[in-house]
Amino acid sequence: MSTTHANAAPTEGHAGEAHPDYIRAKAGLASWLITLDHKRIGILYLIAIITFFLIGGLLAVAVRLHLFKPEGTLVSPEVYNQLFTLHGAIMVFLFIVPSIPATLGNFFLPLMLGAKDVAFPRLNLASFYVYMIGAVLFASSLLFSGLDTGWTFYAPYSSGYAVNGVVMATAGAFVLGFSSIFTGLNFIVTIHKMRAPGLTWNRLPLFVWSLYATSIIYVLATPVVGITLLLLLVERVAGIGIFDPTLGGDPILYQHFFWFYSHPVVYVMILPAFGIISELTTVHSRKHIFGYTAIAASSVAIAFIGFLVWGHHMFVSGQSGLAMTVFSFLTFAVAVPTAIKVFSWIATMYKGSIAFNTPMIYNFCFLFIFSIGGLTGIFLGALSVDVHLHDTYFVVAHFHYVMMGSVFIAFIGGLYHWWPKMTGKMYHEGSAIVAAILVFIGFNVTFFSQFMMGSHGMPRRYATYDQVGAFEPGLLELFTFYHQISTIGSLVLAVGLFLSLFNLIHSLMKGAKAPANPWKGMSLEWETTSPPIEHNFEGQPIVRKGPYEFPEIFAAEQQGR
Amino acid sequence: MIPTALFAYAEGRTFWLPPQASTFAPSVDGLFYFILWVSIVSFLLCMGALTYFGLKYKRRQAFEPTSNIRGDHKLEIAWSVIPGLVLIVVFAWGLKGYMAMAVAPNDTLDIRVTASSWDWYFAYPDGEGTNEELVVPVGRPVRLIMTSTDVIHSLFIPAFRVKRDVLPGRYTTLWFEATREGTYTLFCTEYCGRLHSRMNKRVRVVSQAAYEEWLGTLEVTKPEDLTYAEWGAQLFSAYTCNACHSVDGSRLVGPTVRGLYQSTREFTDGTSAVADEAYLREQILVPASKVTAGYPNAMPAYAGRLSDEELHALVEYIKELQ
Known about the structure:
The complex is a heterodimer of chains A (561) and B (322). By secondary structure, chain A is an all-alpha fold. In chain A, 67% of the residues lie in helices and 1% in strands. In chain A, helix 3 runs parallel beside helix 6.
């Protein structure tokens, strides 16, 4: 995006007057903890979120190791139930929901808009501390009570039967919801009011469009889960029957409330990942995005249709036939804009100049994994086939392909893409690519085998599977084989992820100094220094072109290619 | 380490799916394989294009001209409409299969299913029942009328391609017609707590004659060579009472039954009572009526699941445990 500065003064020329970057602008721990700078808040979020990812990931490895043998290798069923609950709850509520928007979104939204900060910097800081308070409540339930309901907290198990951590954990999730709402409000206002002169809606980078769609869901859906969790608390604490049938409540009502929030939240997770992929594909293949309008509009379409498909989580819980029909149809309706995006990303690479660097390797991994994740969703959207696959490992594999394999891999890809801008350091390309390949292989080995065991009927959330051998010949051997493959894959995946983490940490200490624009990107964040100065830009940037007008395109036009 | 079952499939199992043992299985599997092949073809097309572009347009020098293609309306309409049409076919096919599962024929054999943590109980039309196994005759439509005494469970028989949540306080139904004699597995697929993964039963599909013969053996009476207390000891583990109540005085999910009889019980509502025979009977049938202080209200109700003779045997057994 070609820009000029309003004051047009070459700031570099005034030695000594150049502003220090945001990392050096202020010193001391307090300057970080009470900062109002969106970039520093993004870094705070990044540290917190990666910490929770490591905890959730270690729990996942424990789960996989336990399932290496049919009778379980590590722990009792009670402890296993706590392990998978904590893995799911931490990964969903503390990691993946805030992951991309709160870290890369916080850091890059104002930069991409040419703004000094988000619209409400104090609200932004508040959202971080609200998140931390919610996370501490959540972590306390981990330490003190042994929460074992699964991350879905289904009533009446959660309201009448499970051990007592539910109260604290739901309180934690309730508080975390406010953090999401704060971030969503902040982003919506920022995108509407703080765009640089010339940055019209159809010149917005697609990452910004995806954050806009995400923010709409944050603001509209999160209150519902707040209400639901509050009702659950009321039921447990005051004994008023809402969901528990022995008190006159309705357990299916809980599922409707829960999925009315939790399905749109799937799109909160995946839409920012789509945004990152649009940026990686264009910048690293030096091409204008294929079908800008279709990609931007499909994000918003997915955000809205995504509100109307929650019932597909309840195909076997006893809804009316009409409800089932409508939910199944809308589920397929949401698949079409998603497919359009995948085709458009691949078409973008046609006649491009494709770099094989780490962000692009992750981009390829995303397209491979997300295609499988999306296509297996068709099995689950088809009513009669879903009856067979519902609540089996097929579902576990499907949502890990979409959440872990797509969202998380786009997140790492984006992290590598913007790492030079965020830290001012270049990472080591060779070891980063090796780590990416290990992550890719480990991921597919771990989760593809889960499709196989799921289609043969292996139910999810099973602490053991030794009992099934008694009834059908060969079934125990089959489940054992796929579980063992999956466990081996998870170890490869863990090694790959640790290697990536070391690669990034190593770059902080030993990395070469990053130039302002290592990938020759055209959106506004590449116009400022690496790392950016405290107020992002020297003077007000003015936008004259869209974010994907690469000079290579014009060179081609001049050559008549 | 690679099991032979993967390649030399036993009992009709294929690489992707369990054996087909109900009338639903062929149509569900037909749609499954249709989606599978659509997926494989579209996946290969996408990945093929990606690989080809990656190899052909790999960056070879730092600055190389690229094309100014920004979109193509014909192509975009094509790749919206074609997947849309395929998905409508999948939707209609899935709906048709689901409707067949939703509407049971009129002349079904009705079996009442009671789920409780962590056991299944199957009651046959004449009232006799068992928690040992589900036995159904081949070639006859069977309807399961299901309820739960505590939390949500879900009944899943992969070989029949059927699954339905089992809810407390209401009835859900599910029907199937088994087509193939053999032994299959019934799973609980809604997470229900500690022993969720052990809430499995054997399903046997047998001929009508064998079914009737088996039904005749189901009548539950005390074996003549046992006392009531001895039979009660057997029932205590058959009904998995021992999963939550120890007989040696140790604490499990619920209080131990050793020394229970004639002891004074303190309840969560602050009242107390002496555990006599009437108390023991009431607590087995409707546990939530009085909950012992310091323990969760976690026990499923056994009302309707025990004959009076069985209840007597259990009480006699507990009385002996002093």
